[in-house]
Design a protein that fits this description.
Phosphorylase Kinase, domain 1; seven-stranded mixed sheet; binds adenosine-5'-triphosphate; binds magnesium ion; 7 helices; 2 domains; D-amino Acid Aminotransferase, Chain A, domain 1; alpha+beta; 305 residues
Length: 305
């Protein structure tokens, strides 16, 4: 039976629903972010959920936030409370719904830029490279093969579109929107966090080919001049995870991430416009298993629903 939580329901709190997360406004500049079991592909939310996906994503993000807090003491993140037992009294009646999948965090002003970093050339970066040799304004060496590791990770920001698809944006254009100082800090952090996480994951048999970080600012934190890491971190939704033992340059890779669902959807004649198709039970189960495997390999802990 598919017991996925497609939508959380906390009455009497203002809510904004993203593709995956329900974001509730608490008092005092705080948010309650609940990761549902929704899955999106090609920017369309599927009608079928993946049981436990929200808890897996939240657990993995919390793991990385903790890892970064130790490794990069200067890097601020948005987390305030991850233990539902310690959430405010008004939320305790909903604890069963929230435990494991919800966090309380500081409400920030979201930077309208996604901090994308690529260590390997694949996806849209590979398409751009084949056409022009350039990815997001960065000239890459000639002769790279599909999925090859880059000489060093590159920062390829994109816009955070209100609706529709995110578009690549140059550093200069992005700097005009958010300020060069804070963007330069976000770029540095994006590359440093990725490089350290990729090294860690490699030791667990996972290649992190690329990932996306989101940042916000808050007037209380360095007068809004320091980017704060928000949203999720290094999950199968925000990253490409490849099993290292099957890695081979020059072809597509097996993956622990959403690529599996995308590949399934490519076998249909669906036009990638809403509504998305229902996912069959075996695709749901296999997707869940991939998310669980990524969680368990990276955190070293058994996933407990
Ligand atoms: N600390 C924070 N302060 C303010 N907003 C945040 C914070 N952390 C996450 N968010 C926002 O909450 C939303 C999370 O929802 P979700 O990940 O489902 O969104 P999405 O569908 O990926 O993107 P969007 O909501 O922009 O369409 C995102 O819009 C994200 O930018
Ligand atoms: Mg998101």
């Amino acid at each position: 039976m598919n017991n996925a939580l497609l939508q959380s329901n906390i009455p009497n709190l203002p809510v904004r629903r993203g593709k995956v997360r329900d974001v509730y406004q608490l008092g005092g500049d705080r948010l309650l972010i609940v990761a549902s079991d929704r899955i999106s592909a090609f920017d369309v939310v599927m009608p079928t959920g993946i049981p436990d996906k929200g808890s897996i994503l939240t657990g993995l993000s919390n793991f990385w936030f903790d890892f970064f807090r130790k490794e990069f003491p200067d890097c601020r993140n948005h987390l305030i409370e991850t233990d539902a037992a310690k959430f405010p009294a008004e939320l305790q009646p909903y604890r069963a719904q929230l435990a494991g999948r919800a966090v309380i965090c500081r409400k920030t002003k979201v930077m309208p830029i996604e901090g994308i970093v690529r260590g390997y050339i694949t996806g849209s970066g590979w398409k751009d490279y084949l056409k022009t040799g350039i990815v997001s304004g960065i000239k890459l060496p000639p002769g790279l093969k599909q999925c090859q590791q880059l000489p060093e990770p590159i920062f390829t920001p994109s816009t955070k579109a209100e609706a529709g698809h995110d578009e690549p944006i140059s550093f200069e254009e992005a700097a005009k929107q958010v300020g060069e100082g804070v963007l330069a800090k976000a770029r540095r952090l994006t590359i440093d966090l990725y490089a350290r996480a990729a090294q860690f994951a490699r030791g667990k048999g996972i290649i992190i080919a690329d990932t996306k970080f989101e940042f916000g600012t808050h007037p209380d934190v360095d007068n809004g001049q320091t980017p704060i890491l928000i949203d999720e971190a290094l999950t199968p939704d925000s990253s490409r995870f490849w099993p290292a033992d099957q890695y081979e340059v020059g072809r597509d890779q097996a993956s622990f991430d959403k690529q599996y669902v995308r590949n399934y959807l490519e076998t249909l004649s669906w036009n990638k416009q809403p509504p998305g198709p229902e996912l069959p039970a075996d695709v749901v189960m296999n997707t869940r298993a991939k998310y669980v495997e990524a969680f368990e390999r990276l955190t070293g802990s058994k996933f407990q629903a």
